[in-house]
Amino acid sequence: GCEIVCLDNFNDYYNPQIKRYNIKSYLREKRFNLIEADIRDKDTLKKIFEKYKLQKVIHLAAQTGVRLSLKQPNLYVDVNVNGTLNLLELSKEYKIKNFVFGSSSSVYGATKEIPFSEEGKLKPISPYGVSKRAGELLCSTYNHLYNLSVTILRFFT
């Protein structure tokens, strides 16, 4: 099997103790490495890419929540756009084989098209939705410019 590197900043969007409890059973696995860090810290990310010789990136890190994004839009852009950009830049530099990005159904926003379609119009109406759409666009750009293999997943909650 593969060695897994899990990066989490254990932010307080919901109780960090619950997050730590949920991940506890994986800590016993020899090939599982938990690193407490933030995707906005590019220097730390670079050290992780160098140390672990990553081949694939599954990027699920995000500042989540539509309502809170209305109160803290700068935080959402910083984490979800700048953090994603850091990971894409390092993925390009370290020739990552596949970059998987976790997006959100919030990118659909006020669209009236039902059912939703990947090709449908996107009208995000919150800073969170906009930040996830920006992440999608960055991923598509890195695929186009640098031939980085990218998979985008739009999660619904």
From TrEMBL:
Q: Which UniProt keywords are present, listed alphabetically?
A: NAD
Record organism: marine sediment metagenome
Entry keyword annotation includes Signal: no
Listed name of the protein: NAD(P)-binding domain-containing protein
The answer to whether UniProt assigns keyword Cell membrane to this entry is: no
Fetch the InterPro entries from UniProt: NAD(P)-bd_dom, NAD(P)-bd_dom_sf
Coiled-coil ranges (or none): none
Q: Where is the NAD(P)-binding domain?
A: 14-156
